[in-house]
């Protein structure tokens, strides 16, 4: 039986259009019929349209991006952070973006700092000020620091302050000099909900000085911020801790373990990400007992439902030896996670057997447990999996790139996972175990279940259940 697609409601057709390659919406769909032409101009048809540019893109890919930039009326995401060379193709893309008025929701500005790049960033911020909701601004250190640099950076920050409906602001710091900005950006936003201060280079940060507007943004938006992510701790640390601790309404927070006490008064905190980065060895060595006491007595930490532990890559961390206080504090933290529903270890290469057992035995209410690129040097074995049998609500167990010393250990872990799955029929598993044995060849053991690598894209239990049903249908 033939069915006319035009019998479908317009909203459903737009949803179908949004799953097509964006260039089809530019070159093909508008030419089919008058109705499709109109539907192709709706914002719903473009909700998945992004423009991401990098120096490694081929000439063909850049030409396609120029056509897309010219024809797309709505863009969800525009990213220039991977552009270090402002060639003619990149200039053509920016020109096409600015030539016709567009709705752009999210902008990531240039990752390098030249006069031309700063000027194009300023123009894009001005052109899309009425539609932008998210802005990411890398603040790289230029080859030479001049008066023009300070003026242009202050102009860019002032343009950001003019985005009245801005909801998310992120700065990526690369040893940026202090350029003494005191403009409107420091005065606060009416709708800012999420703020991040990130760095691509993890390490000891005791020598990094930051502009005071970072402190001002935290202090002047403290009542409305609900999410703060910090991987670049700004100095002076004491002032930074005071500014961050004043954000009492945070629901989600990412901080280094060493300043975890800033969450003391965040009574609404639900999601906590902790990463390990030695900041000031002498200062921390004197205060780690206070930190341990805070973790052990904090009611805020006891109420969190999401806990993520992250460790920077070793090659980016100049402190090669893990300070002993980290393991002491982790042992206390592991006893406070009985309400945690989502737990994740990311790049945590080493953890003591005691702490592993403490974490796994206390995850009694967990829905999701993810171990990603972690525990390479830890004594991980089947007994840790067996401890999860107490987690009656577990729906996802994901173990990716786990390295073990022998095939025997890998097979025992695999058998334990299968036994756990037989006890909990609703459990979805995704595991990848790598055997590293000097006397045998490299071997990888995988499960045969559908991959759930994109689970983190789903924000609630309903989405996860729907995704699980779809995986069963298509498998």
UniProtKB/TrEMBL annotation:
Annotated Pfam families: F-box-like (PF12937)
Domain F-box intervals: 2-49
Tree of life domain: Eukaryota
Record-linked InterPro entries: F-box-like_dom_sf, F-box_dom
Name of the protein in its database record: F-box/WD repeat-containing protein mec-15
């Amino acid at each position: 039986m033939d069915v006319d697609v035009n019998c479908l409601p317009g909203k459903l057709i737009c949803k179908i259009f949004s799953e097509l390659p964006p260039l089809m919406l530019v070159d093909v769909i508008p030419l089919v019929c008058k109705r499709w032409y109109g539907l192709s101009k709706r914002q719903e048809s473009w909700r998945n349209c992004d423009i991401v540019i990098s120096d490694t893109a081929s000439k063909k890919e850049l030409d396609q991006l120029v056509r897309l930039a010219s024809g797309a009326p709505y863009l969800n995401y525009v990213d220039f952070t991977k552009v270090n060379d402002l060639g003619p193709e990149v200039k053509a893309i920016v020109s096409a973006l600015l030539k016709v008025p567009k709705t752009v929701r999210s902008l990531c500005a240039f990752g390098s700092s030249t006069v031309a790049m700063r000027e194009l960033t300023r123009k894009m911020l001005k052109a899309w000020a009425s539609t932008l909701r998210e802005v990411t601004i890398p603040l790289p250190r230029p080859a030479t620091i001049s008066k023009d640099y300070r003026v242009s950076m202050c102009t860019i920050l002032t343009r950001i302050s003019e985005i009245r409906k801005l909801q998310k602001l992120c700065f990526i710091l690369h040893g940026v000099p202090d350029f003494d900005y005191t403009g409107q950006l420091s005065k606060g936003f009416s709708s800012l909900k999420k703020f991040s201060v990130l760095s691509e280079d993890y390490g000891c940060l005791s020598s990094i000085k930051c502009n005071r507007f970072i402190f001002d943004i935290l202090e002047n938006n403290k009542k409305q911020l609900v999410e703060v992510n910090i991987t670049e701790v700004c100095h002076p640390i004491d002032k930074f801790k005071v500014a961050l601790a004043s954000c009492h309404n945070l629901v989600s927070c990412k901080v280094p373990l060493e300043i975890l006490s800033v969450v003391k008064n965040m009574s609404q905190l639900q999601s906590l990400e902790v990463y390990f980065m030695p900041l000031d060895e002498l200062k921390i060595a004197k205060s780690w007992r206070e930190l341990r006491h805070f973790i052990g007595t904090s009611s805020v930490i006891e109420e969190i439902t999401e806990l993520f532990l992250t460790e920077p890559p070793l090659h980016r961390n100049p402190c090669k030896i893990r300070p002993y206080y980290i393991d002491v504090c982790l042992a206390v933290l592991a006893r406070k996670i009985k309400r945690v529903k989502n737990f994740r270890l990311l790049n945590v290469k080493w953890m003591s057997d005691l702490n592993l057992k403490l974490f796994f035995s206390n995850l009694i209410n967990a829905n999701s447990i993810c171990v990603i690129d972690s525990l390479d040097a830890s004594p991980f074995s089947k007994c840790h999996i067996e401890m999860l049998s107490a987690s009656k609500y577990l729906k996802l167990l994901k173990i990716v790139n786990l390295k073990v010393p022998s095939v025997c250990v890998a097979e025992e872990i695999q058998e334990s996972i299968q036994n756990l799955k037989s006890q909990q029929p609703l459990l979805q598993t995704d595991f990848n175990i790598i055997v590293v044995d000097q006397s045998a060849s490299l071997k990888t053991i995988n499960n045969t279940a559908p991959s759930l690598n994109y689970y983190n894209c789903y924000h609630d239990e309903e989405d996860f259940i729907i995704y699980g049903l779809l995986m069963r249908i298509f498998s």
